[in-house]
Each structure stands twice: as structure tokens, then as C-alpha cells.
């Protein structure tokens, strides 16, 4: 979807998502010391707020101004801990070596020749930092002829793991049952998860 479609989606509902942080984020980040985090495709901001309330300084990025306004309205208790930013990280990469955590959950990251957008996100992880990528399992996704959606056009965690340089330690690369119920109107039952630490 383009920027206009994302804005229209958020404007069409008072709340699009559950209001709970992603289960993979909660499970995988609890053991990490707080630092600087990048929340890619932050939507209504629940993950960013969850991180900020646990001591992280968060840059939360989305293409939808509507989503960002909604997210910023909910951060009254953690003023100054989240920077809300409108940007398309698939065309404008974040700063390199800048974040202790780059969190990418259910973000539609389309495959590209040369993997420029993906490499921009991976390179944003600082030495010692963590890359956390989670998406719906391929077994739960189906092609849609009406809008041209093909799951094979998008990166899965295993694709990313195979592209990582030797400076990375892949800690988790697996498919697991979803912790939270699937969003209304969907049948997603499994997540695929990559957690990797940059060694240097």
C-alpha cells in the first residue's frame, strides 16, 4: 500500500490494532538492557510506548501521519522518551550504527535487487546491538490476485539470516505459535522470528 492507503486505513478506524505490544517483542526484549531503539513501521505506537516505559529511548517511524498523531497522543506519561518521525525507511535508510535495538514487526519489506532497503535497516544496528524481525509465517499467507499480493515478494526471517555478514550471531530463526490471538478477520496462527546480535 502507498502512503495514502495507510492514512486512509488508520482514519477509517478509531483503533486499528489491539493496543497491546507485539508478543515477540515482549518475549525477546525483556532480557536486554535499555538503550536506543528504532521501531520500524510503528503504527499506533504501542511497541514504542512499551519500550519507552521500560527505559528505552525510542525513534518510532511510520509513513502514516495519522498513525503517528494517534501514537503521540498516547505518550503523555513518557514525554521525551519517544521521537515520532514520518519517513519511508524503504527509501531513506536510518543512520548507520545508531541503535541498540532495531525492531521490525509485521513490516511489509519487499524484496529488492541488491537488498538496499534491508541492508539499510540491518546497518542501523550498532555493534553489540540486536536485530529483531517478526512476521506472519508463510503457511498463514496466501496470494491475492485482486490486489497482486504475493507473499514470496517479501522477506522472511530466514532470508535475512542468510544475508547477514559473519559479524552477526543468529540467536533465533524459527517459526512459533502466536502468543496473542490473531487480529480480527485474519487466520494468522504462527509467527516467524529472527533475533540476531551484531558482534562488532
From TrEMBL:
Pfam family, one: Methyltransf_25
The species this protein was found in: Streptosporangium lutulentum
Superkingdom field: Bacteria
One GO MF term attached to the UniProt entry: methyltransferase activity
Keyword set, alphabetical order: Methyltransferase, S-adenosyl-L-methionine, Transferase
Source lineage: Bacteria, Bacillati, Actinomycetota, Actinomycetes, Streptosporangiales
Residue ranges annotated for the Methyltransferase domain, each copy included: 38-129
Gene3D superfamilies with a match to the protein in the record: Vaccinia Virus protein VP39
GO biological process, one term: methylation
Entry annotated with the keyword Ubl conjugation: no
Protein name listed in UniProt: SAM-dependent methyltransferase
